[in-house]
Amino acid sequence: MGLLVDGQWVDRWYDTRGNDGEFVRESAKLRDWVTPDGEPGPDGRSSVSAGPDRFHLYVSLACPWAHRVLIMRRLKGLSGLMGVSVTSPYMLKEGWTYELEEGSSGDPVNGVRRHYQLYTLTDEHYTGRVTVPVLWDKKKSRIVNNESADLMRIFNTAFDELTGNQLDLYPAPLREEIDRINDEVYDRVNNGVYKAGFATEQKVYEKHVTALFEMLDRLEALLEERRYLAGEYLTEADIRLFTTLVRFDSVYYSHFKCNLNRIEDYSALSSYLRELYQWPGIADTVNMSHIKRHYYGSHPSINPNGIVPLGPELDLERPHDRERLTGKGIWQHDA
Ligand SMILES: N[C@@H](CCC(=O)N[C@@H](CS)C(=O)NCC(=O)O)C(=O)O
Questions:
Q1: Active site: which residues (predicted)?
Q2: pLDDT, tens digit, for every residue of 228-244?
């Protein structure tokens, strides 16, 4: 695990010592947009135009941030329009790689063996963390964007004219509520499990685990009343929560020591997790082997021998009881 410094790969773990035992996630740096005609994106950001064979997605099936984007690709019918390269589950000295024998798909587009090469192809002096997911522009031979929150929004609208898909996972009337939920879920849940798991001071770990379970209790109460986080429609907020929930009992509970409860112990949250897992197309995006091998095998400071636990045995296919709450599926753009 490492980062690029002026285009050179440096093998270095996160610096928690310099932050009083806290893991601080670096913000993504490549933030261009994709729009139907290449007109500027939100906040006037520069943009490239959507095209049928222009983009390629690089993901790890283990990574919850990449997973959100893979789900959006599926729900928005983009699979035929945009190929995907899957990394090896392991992220070790050279960072993410495309080693076929470890379970990577390889990289048919650029033929790179190490994920950081995509960053140096984009900018030979790149400095910063080298993360998945990444959206690659085949026309300009560079990364367009490496922030999953942006990629979800791009996929929600940019290609609609090409696909005819009208589903809207960020509908205008619900945006304020979605943004509010996303902020808290990001801080306490999505990134909260990492802040607990990568903490190197007891009090820091306890602070983040406490905040995480306070939030899970609040989400449990909300989901007792609401079918989905923002109400009756499934939105991006649900996808963002799902990718953490589906990893929780297998990984975050034990590997990151987030073990006050399992998701299975919450009635509404566990049923909600099963409903989302059973949503058409979603189960196919979940690869528990990559998920477990990645976490237990890529963090030697937490799990030095890399032993991958056999359990727990989860049955996400069993019935859920969410029909008792009103649900209207996914919003349509022209609804
Ligand atoms: N802000 C990014 C974060 C992505 C991220 O941190 N991905 C992890 C994998 S789960 C990664 O690639 N980490 C490598 C590193 O931090 O060096 C996003 O949401 O797209």
A1: 63 (nucleophile), 194 (proton donor/acceptor)
A2: 999 999 999 999 999 99
Nearest ligand 1 atom to alpha carbon 115: 12
What are the boundaries of each domain within the chain?
2-165, 172-280
Ligand 1 centroid – CA 17 distance (Å): 20
pTM above 0.90, yes or no: yes
Task: Judge whether 246 is annotated as a binding position.
Answer: no
- The residue contributing the CA closest to ligand 1 atom 8 is 131
In CATH, the architecture of 172-280 is Up-down Bundle (1.20)
Q: What is the DSSP string of 124-175?
A: TT--EE--S-EEEETTTTEEEE--HHHHHHHHHHTTHHHH---EESS-GGGH
Ligand 1 interacting residues, C-beta cut-off 6 A: 1, 28, 63, 65, 129-133, 147-148
On whether ipTM exceeds 0.90, the answer is yes
CATH-assigned architecture of domain 2-165: 3-Layer(aba) Sandwich (3.40)
Dihedral sign, Cα of residue 10, residue 13, residue 19, residue 25: positive
Q: How many residues does this entry show for the chain?
A: 335
